Amino acid sequence: MNVYDGQRMAELLGANGMTAAVDGADADLVVLNTCHIREKAAEKAYSEVGRLRREDGSKPLVALAGCVAQAEGGEAKRRSPMIDMVVGPQAYHRLPEMVAQAVRGGRPVDTDMPAISKFDAFPTRRRANPSSFLTIQEGCDKFCTYCVVPYTRGAEISRPEKDIVLEARELVDAGAREIVMLGQNVNAWSYDGRGFADLIRALADIDGLERIRYTTSHPMDMSDDLIAAHAEVAKLMPYLHLPVQSGSNRILKAMNRSHTAETYLAILEKMRAARPDIALSGDFIVGFPGETEEDFTATLNLVDEVGYASAYSFKYSPRPGTPAATMEDQIATEIMDDRLQRLQARIIAHQVAFNRASVGKETEVLIERRGKYPGQMIGKSPWLQSVHVETDATPGDILPVALTAAGPNSLTGALLTKAAA
Ligand code: 5AD
Ligand code: SF4
Q: Which domain holds residue 406?
């Protein structure tokens, strides 16, 4: 989502007469888009800001944006005289106005979370990546006890369907072949009585749009209708990122996850019944307060049971203001390091197995960019694997390939027939 936000801020500033600096060091304005989800986010942001001072003592205009800006607010200006603007994730549309104020010597702060849509302020796009992000939903009402998102991104809010379809059409006209719908709880999207599966079907009707993906989902909002869409909508790619966080019901309860290992597995079973080839992905946190070796073993067992195609895993990071930060039995770093290593080894083993099992398949690859070698292009399989193909095709082409070899992080594909543009 920060990538999407960054692109939109750049487009908005572009529409207001600015151009991207070739070298960051020459920039008149630097926007630092920050994430607050884990680790020492605020400290990292301030040290990054400090580095923007030039050798001759001059400095660019500096805007602190994103969730650290949201969490720090006006305090950011007190902590660093380098910071001229503080702009939270719901206030990006005000950036040009804030820059104008800063040029006049002001130090504006905007961390409001208005219900009205910032999206209306963003300009029309002329160029889009073959695979383009589209934010359809923001915020979170789930309040997992470790997570800062409900505080920094605010309550769950869905964009109107007509705005989303309009933006999707605009992206397709500008070159997108695939749209990745984004939201902190993307599958909680609902508007005017329409649900997420309805939205998927509406996007599937757009000519020229060939692939639809979405991320990230909460198990609570995996409706039967959404699962059915995976069986019916050909453009919906066979990939699901469904974070579980832990395999231990005791920890899941302490996390306020509202699902158990069993209810999570039941959802995946239904999903596999609807779309047998679906690639599954997830998120895990190790070392949540009170996590025992037994709890952790339950997580390893769940990984084995699911057989993820890929997954993200993190060490628990206490976030100021969240309930878990003050829970007893915080876990020592060494224990977290050890568990993370063991979990990642297990995940990678499944990832390698998944990729190897793909070898021999004939499928389609959406070409996204050039590879390292002349004549080599890199694209994505329907299961979101990176595939290297020797071809003179260009980004945006969708090519029929045979998958011929697999490594842990990518596959090799051989072109089957001439490019179908
Ligand atoms: N510590 C570690 N990981 C976290 N995540 C969210 N909050 C924390 C935290 N405090 C992880 C979760 C989530 C992903 C986006 O980040 O796994 O799904
Ligand atoms: Fe954070 Fe996701 Fe839980 Fe919301 S559902 S509180 S974003 S981990």
A: 362-415
